[in-house]
Design goal:
about 20% strand; single chain
């Protein structure tokens, strides 16, 4: 079989997985969960889940949003594990952006029955994710990263144009004001496990993402054999497309097909 034929087969397979914007990769029904723990990513805080939370609560789920310290992977894991320890049964663990790193490690907790990644990293065990990301064109938001005393923030221009593209400007400016300072060293931290290798996973790809390359998101979703949706949204799909993100989490919780 020629290399060209193999490449064409791979493209067709990926197209089939993503056809219609949704692909259900799980072969068994998800465990019905009572709880959801949400973890925000870099340059954000827990309020980034503010549009998703009431939709999950309306479906009867107990929801906890972690206030991710963004100082180190160890600190983020400790905060997430504290939240998981307080859950009373089957729990969906969901993460946006960088916090997919946290989900991939903390998701090994016995209470966690499903993982949800929203335009998120999903590193393999010990993987150099910076090197992996470098295989894809960088998003425009990266040019707006500003570092002070070992912590980074996004410039207002980059935040509004590229990080929060698709979010109404008034809302985007509020999110800019509450963005969490993020340790520059955070992005190089590596995981010791990959929960998605043993836990059922769901992934929301942002087709208009200018922070994480959408093709990298597609690669990650396919690698973990995730149930995948594609959204006409920028990086903050949890803000601009909250119903679709809530529906994906509810599917992972066994409450929606």
């Amino acid at each position: 079989m020629s290399a060209r034929t193999m490449a064409m087969m791979a493209v067709c397979l990926l197209a089939g997985v993503l056809a219609g914007g949704e692909a259900f990769a799980q072969t068994t029904a998800p465990v019905k969960a009572r709880n959801v723990v949400l973890v925000h990513g870099a340059w954000a805080d827990g309020s980034s889940w503010g549009e998703v939370i009431p939709r999950l609560q309306a479906a009867g789920l107990n929801v906890t949003a972690v206030q991710n310290p963004l100082s180190s992977l160890a600190d983020s894991l400790a905060e997430t594990r504290r939240a998981l320890a307080l859950q009373d049964g089957p729990t969906v663990l969901a993460g946006h952006s960088w916090s997919g790193t946290v989900v991939s490690e903390a998701g090994m907790d016995d209470k966690v029955t499903a993982l949800v990644y929203v335009a998120a990293r999903a590193p393999d065990v010990g993987e150099d994710f910076v090197a992996l990301s470098g295989k894809f064109p960088a998003g425009a938001a990266r040019a707006g990263v500003q570092e002070h005393d070992g912590y980074t923030k996004l410039s207002e221009d980059a935040f509004l144009k590229y990080f929060a593209n698709g979010v109404p400007r008034v809302k985007a400016k509020v999110l800019y004001a509450v963005q969490g300072p993020t340790a520059a060293s955070l992005f190089g931290d590596r995981t010791t496990v990959a929960a998605w290798r043993s836990k059922p996973s769901w992934y929301a790809v942002s087709k208009l993402d200018q922070t994480i390359n959408p093709d990298l998101e597609r690669f990650l979703a396919k690698r973990m054999n995730a149930t995948t949706i594609e959204l006409d949204a920028g990086h903050l799909s949890l803000v601009s497309r909250p119903q679709q993100i809530a529906d994906l989490i509810l599917a992972a919780a066994g409450l929606r097909k």
